[in-house]
Design a protein that fits this description.
Helices cover 65% and strands 6% of the residues. The protein has 136 residues and is mostly helical. Helix 2 packs across helix 3. The chain starts with 7 loop residues before the first helix and ends in a 12-residue tail after the last helix. The chain has one domain.
Length: 136
């Protein structure tokens, strides 16, 4: 088996991935609620599946392919050029930027952006598991 020195970038990526795993374990309900609000039942089911699996000990790397569409869904909402709107009965209402679901989407977008970047770096380095505290 070939070993290589761990680079500072890989160490940082592992730390970010470990922090995301902790965030998802402790605050997965934010991701689930955001996915539900923005993408409906199927997106919520996907978010719940990932959050539950990670809470039960799976590595975030195991869910890289599921996290990407969630990130894309949320990023399209947060980073869209149109004002965020929602339907309330027969009315289309512009969202208050401080509304809980808007803030939740911003939190999720930030967490997912950082996590996807870190997980991609770990996949590229062929690192398959990240210890709870990241790499030393």
């Amino acid at each position: 088996m070939h070993h290589h020195d761990i680079t500072p970038g890989e160490i940082q990526a592992a730390r970010v991935a470990a922090a995301f795993k902790g965030w998802l374990r402790n605050h997965g309900e934010i991701l689930i609620a955001t996915a539900d609000a923005l993408g409906g039942a199927e997106a919520a089911k996907l978010a719940r599946s990932v959050a539950t699996s990670v809470a039960q000990g799976a590595d975030a790397l195991d869910h890289f392919d599921e996290l990407r569409p969630l990130r894309d869904l949320i990023a399209n909402y947060v980073g869209g050029s149109q004002p965020a709107v929602y339907r309330e009965g027969d009315l289309i209402v512009e969202c208050d930027p401080n509304a809980p679901h808007v803030v939740g989407a911003q939190i999720c977008a930030n967490a997912l952006d950082r996590a996807i970047e870190a997980l991609q770096a770990l996949k590229t380095a062929k690192i398959r598991r990240v210890p709870a505290g990241g790499l030393a």
